[in-house]
Design goal:
single chain, mainly alpha
Length: 32
Amino acid sequence: MNRMKERYQAQVVPALTKRFGYKNPMQVPRLR
């Protein structure tokens, strides 16, 4: 799970922020 979480934070969060126009990284859905 740790590797997936690191990849999510490093690659997926910035991509979602850009694609959906989130202004704050805390708006991006989180993994549980």
